[in-house]
Amino acid sequence: xxxxxxxxxxxxxxxxxxxxxxxxxxxxxxxxxxxxxxxxxxxxxxxxxxxxxxxxxxxxxxxxxxxxxxxxxxxxxxxxxxxxxxxxxxxxxxxxxxxxxxxxxxxxxxxxxxxxxxxxxxxxxxxxxxxxxxxxxxxxxxxxxxxxxxxxxxxxxxxxxxxxxxxxxxxxxxxxxxxxxxxxxxxxxxxxxxxxxxxxxxxxxxxxxxxxxxxxxxxxxxxxxxxxxxxxxxxxxxxxxxxxxxxxxxxxxxxxxxxxxxxxxxxxxxxxxxxxxxxxxxxxxxxxxxxxxxxxxxxxxxxxxxxxxxxxxxxxxxxxxxxxxxxxxxxxxxxxx
Amino acid sequence: xxxxxxxxxxxxxxxxxxxxxxxxxxxxxxxxxxxxxxxxxxxxxxxxxxxxxxxxxxxxxxxxxxxxxxxxxxxxxxxxxxxxxxxxxxxxxxxxxxxxxxxxxxxxxxxxxxxxxxxxxxxxxxxxxxxxxxxxxxxxxxxxxxxxxxxxxxxxxxxxxxxxxxxxxxxxxxxxxxxxxxxxxxxxxxxxxxxxxxxxxxxxxxxxxxxxxxxxxxxxxxxxxxxxxxxxxxxxxxxxxxxxxxxxxxxxxxxxxxxxxxxxxxxxxxxxxxxxxxxxxxxxxxxxxxxxxxxxxxxxxxxxxxxxxxxxxxxxxxxxxxxxxxxxxxxxxxxxxxxxxxxxxxxxx
Amino acid sequence: xxxxxxxxxxxxxxxxxxxxxxxxxxxxxxxxxxxxxxxxxxxxxxxxxxxxxxxxxxxxxxxxxxxxxxxxxxxxxxxxxxxxxxxxxxxxxxxxxxxxxxxxxxxxxxxxxxxxxxxxxxxxxxxxxxxxxxxxxxxxxxxxxxxxxxxxxxxxxxxxxxxxxxxxxxxxxxxxxxxxxxxxxxxxxxxxxxxxxxxxxxxxxxxxxxxxxxxxxxxxxxxxxxxxxxxxxxxxxxxxxxxxxxxxxxxxxxxxxxxxxxxxxxxxxxxxxxxxxxxx
Lengths: 337, 349, 280
Prior knowledge:
- The structure holds three protein chains of three kinds.
- Chain A is mostly helical.
- Chain A contains 14 helices and no strands.
- Chain B is built from 13 helices and two strands.
């Protein structure tokens, strides 16, 4: 009796966490808006958000530039973190992540090619194109890994992900070189950046990411079962094939939305779920929502660092996430494989 | 069934050499010569064979031909061939020492370490003579190799896929550092570093030819010397010791050699991806041979590969020049995938 | 740069001649990993013309002792010698001409043929300039014949079965042409018939060439059937050393292995055989 009651008790003890996460997120969000070329006091930020005054310079900056960027960071961070958490649960691979398994570059490649060659630059199309690219890359990576010597293990998955990413990166550079004019703007986007995202892009990506998030939250309970092995999950009454399909949809939709906004932002999906797992244990009912929060916070902070570290020069946010993610990856390889 | 070999069993020098390997090597040398000639002919100012030959060995048909061949195309082609050979030798050495078919300087972070050091040099001291680049590259690559050694090789000697994964993680980290540096750096200097980072030989001049040849001449004899202990190390650490190899010292020497080879190539042409991975496998497919001959064949394959990649990059979308690094990556990934597919499961962890 | 290659060429000992009557002696050897001794004050002697088997339960240190004697592991204390050669002090290449080791799970480089693999055993006799002398060719042929792998000479090692592959490795250490041979569990993972053939090969080699052969074995009955002498280890120490009939007794198996077994004598060969006792 006691043992069975324990998980409930632990969950009960964590009732306070949503409040803490929400508070930290709010703080990071406000700090993110306040920081920049011209630092705006936190008080002004709150004032601008709650009661904007027309024509007030700081308020204009906040509403037209900084707020969209902060929202973009929240969306991309949460989306990629949840996608990573789902992939890690379903593949039982501690290193699974949209970037490492080729999805980010698949989506980016699709976007670069369609925008460059077919002129489909309308933000409404980009999430769909990105989704198709991410799906194709995922399928390719999985296909290679499944046919490798030892079958689809964490290691073969990562290696085929690296192979596909290397090929797509080379092709993207090739396309870039062929038509330098068109790609001037895309080049910055390709390093993973949150700068200069229009509100329109955010609005077109939002439904995709929302749908992905809803599916993720709905399926979280079953992911926990699946993370204990296919047979265990079947034994517990999970329809594994259907669940995998649902998760695939969620991962692709979240990744596509994130890529449409920020380009290939690596390692967010790797770092954040592990962070969440360290604090909140292994129940995906908790991991999925907390990963969303932590991902948003992580990317807000990373973007603050990207803008502040070498001020007044701004580095790509993707560089910051890779600087954190590379060592985390090496650490995971050492301890988890 | 017995394959044809040349043997000499008596006297001060004895050897055993499969004839097929020797024939393949001769063919490759012919191929390298062909690539050199075609490379001298190709470009926005096309020349025919006789034009190239007379420019090289007699009087140039005109001043343009003289300049184009001697000042631009010749040094560029030589650098491509040399860098390809060095990268191939580096990959072959690394694969033998770690007994890992996927070991490649650009995959495990050694090339990235060299790149970071060179980009730092370009951005921080733009005026410094380019001959400092190989020294910077070597130091940077050596530091990374030491870190990899510390993190991944201690228990298993690098034979595992974990070693490759550690390298991939490290490479991502270092690449991010380089990117950050480029953003930080002055835009003009960053531009010059950026062109180099794409893995291009197009800016190569006689200066590069000079110091790259010097580095090659410095390192390759050591490698020739090391080919014998390398053959023993391929069979496992215990077996190598039992055959009389001083394992620790030899391993360190070989890894240092491999790092130096990759670093010098990277200093000249930037991080050309996958050459160190593919060339040794091509050499192995074409002819079986002992380690020494395999190294020679790998070097020739690497030279051919980068020479052809540069040629292709110049000709395919002319007048746009595609850096050789892009071409080698596109050619290299299928080979990489093929290697993943045939990797035995026992090697995985 | 300490790459092992001196250009002075030494005379190659011919098979059988130098091998006579040189034994292997370990005195007070302690060895282990990371400074912790797994083998403690290990005293051991193996004689020419004999097949000596090292047996003991898992973790008893038998493989560690073998590795220490083969200088794959440094010794923390003590001395190992072959004739008047100090294994841990002498030039590694000189030692390799007197003592060969077949490690557990050796690695065959991709695409190597049997002949090329066996030829690797000639490493300690070769130099950069003299890579393939008449002596080398002769020793490789002799070794391949002895190990009965000549019919595979030009096939790839990776295409052979486990038993055939193991014979190739044995041919490689035979080609090293050393008076002392150490083998670390050469029969593990092989079928019983293949194990028996391999052990017969080792026994013949020891007797006919007057070589000193030390084998770490897992299977007690195989050890008892083929060894001339048994050395039993427990907790890093030698607990029994002597003729098979003296060492291989029920009481000692119970003591060292914790194994409840009857030991009976094979009526044909007189060799002891152990039969585990089932609790009824």
